Automatic annotation (TrEMBL):
Residues 4-167 form the Bacterial bifunctional deaminase-reductase C-terminal domain. GO terms for biological process: riboflavin biosynthetic process. Pfam families: RibD_C (PF01872). InterPro entries: DHFR-like_dom_sf, RibDG_C, Riboflavin_Biosynth_HTPR. It comes from Lysinibacillus sphaericus OT4b.31. GO terms for molecular function: 5-amino-6-(5-phosphoribosylamino)uracil reductase activity. This is Deaminase-reductase domain-containing protein.
Length: 175
């Protein structure tokens, strides 16, 4: 059995995950409830994948690295090796993740960014979509999904309200 890759992410009602300048203040201003399902998702994973731009944003906007207890891979073209918390990977993210899915372990959380998500969408590498919709219409920004993705059939697992936000949980239908 292969490991599942999950997307756990928040989006505005009009489908943006950030403003053009990576600003997420609108997300922090959203009236949620508790941790909006984060703890439950986080306990189901043991591995994290993210791009360098997302990694830099996380470091810049948190007091300490938020995932110290998980194996974390950061995909980059500019850095080698490891630091205290992550392993930097210069390999193709799709090929690397396909190998990772075959290894022993729990679920893999694809944190971001948009480029990695787009590559995963094109290859149908996401097994679960947990998308929290916030009560914002941003009008422009970085879209959750880019164009020309394959058609992917999903099965609704759950919907949950967290204050003013709604979480949609889908699994990819298997044939």
């Amino acid at each position: 059995m292969t490991r599942e890759v999950i997307l756990f992410i928040a989006t505005s009602l009009d489908g943006f995950i950030a403003k053009e300048d990576d600003n997420l203040q609108w997300l922090y201003d959203a009236e949620g409830e508790g941790d909006n399902g984060y703890t439950e998702m986080y306990q189901s994973i043991d591995t994290i994948i993210m791009g360098k731009r997302t990694y830099d944003y996380v470091l810049e906007h948190t007091e300490s690295f938020p995932y110290p207890d998980k194996k974390c891979y950061v995909f980059t073209t500019s850095q080698d090796g490891t630091d205290d918390y992550v392993e930097f990977v210069k390999e193709d993210v799709v090929a690397f993740t396909k190998k990772l899915k075959e290894q022993q372990g729990s679920k893999i959380w694809m944190v971001g960014g948009a480029g990695i998500l787009d590559a995963f969408m094109k290859e149908n590498l996401i097994d679960e979509y947990i998308i929290t919709v916030t009560p914002h219409i941003l009008g422009s920004g970085i879209p959750l999904f880019k164009e020309k993705n394959p058609q992917i059939e999903l099965k609704l697992i759950n919907t949950q309200r967290f204050g003013q936000m709604v979480q949609l949980h889908y699994k990819v239908k298997t044939v």
